[in-house]
Amino acid sequence: MDRYEVLHPVWRDPAGSTYVARSPDGQPVAVRFLPAEPAPDLSRGRLLTAIRHPNLAGVRELVAGPRLAVVSEVVEGVALRRRGPVAPAAAARIGAGIAAGLHALHEAGVVHQHLNPANVVVARSGDVLLTDIALGPLLGASPAGRQRLHAGLGAGLSPEVAAGAAPSVASDLYALGVVLAGLMPGLMRGLLRALLAPDPNSRPASAADVRRWLINSRSAIHVTDDQVVATYQTSTYSEEYSAWSSSS
Q: Phi, psi at residue 79, to the nearest 5°?
């Protein structure tokens, strides 16, 4: 990590600590230091750095050291963990962005495994991006790593994974349902019932199906990026740092 200047902390959870840093070319990046134990599974490192999508904060590189560092694109905006319920139109717009990012991961053969309000960010542009896309593949191969991932999921941990099943597209969709329920409690009940079905085979077949449902829903038709930005007033890194410090 000698090539990167670590600036300040942003977030930490059982899966590691995230910092804002400056890259050798002077650009801001997000650096997630994974726990020293368990040892990460690096077999899919090349795949992780190759995935690019407008709704994903892409991984730039993995840097070996006493603690593996995942260097990713930084997203300046507001994580959903810092906001409560929103208007149905904004919730549908945000949910569609989450689903698009998940579908891109699933098409690449990657299960997120850690989807929760802390790693969904609404950028200044109104775009919705998923962060921490490398954690599942890096930590999910061992029981100790899965335990760290599950600790950050809370209610988003699907029943089948809690019972010992392998994470899957269906378990990511369950976590998406929990995130959507937090954005719009009591609304879009049909979709939420499907996403939160105890039986994974009863959930939607893909994140692309969920995205289509949200885009086509009446509440999503007229929402604009400006409305999403107005709902989620963006924060600064110093605000995120203050929140991190006060929770330490």
A: -75, 145
- Is a pLDDT exceeding 90 seen at residue 21? yes
Residue from 226, 240, 216, 236 nearest 95 by CA: 216
Helices of type H across 196-247: 207-216, 225-231, 237-246
Structural contact between residues 90 and 98, judged by C-beta atoms closer than 8 angstroms = no
CATH of residue 28's domain is 3.30.200.20
Residue 62: domain span:
5-75
Digit-coded pLDDT (tens) for 32-57: 999 988 889 999 999 999 999 999 99
For the ranges 40-44, 228-232, 242-246, the lowest mean pLDDT is seen at: 242-246
Q: DSSP assignment, residue 95?
A: H
Q: What is the DSSP string of 25-66?
A: TS-EEEEEEPPSSSPP--TTHHHHHH---TTB--EEEEE-SS
Structure tokens at 41: 């599974």
Helix, strand, or coil (residue 123): strand
Number of domains in the chain: 2
**What are residue 62's DSSP bridge partners?**
70
Distance, in Å, from the CA atom of 84 to the CA atom of 232, rounded to the nearest integer, reads 10
pLDDT tens per residue, range 140-182:
988 999 999 998 888 999 999 999 999 999 999 999 999 999 9
137, 153: one domain: yes
Q: Look at residue 240 and tell me if it is in a domain.
A: no
* Burial label, 66 (beta-carbon count in 10 A; 0-12, 13-18, 19+): exposed
Please tell me the pTM assigned to this model. 0.86
- As separate numbers, helices (DSSP H) first and strands (DSSP E) second, the chain gives 10, 8
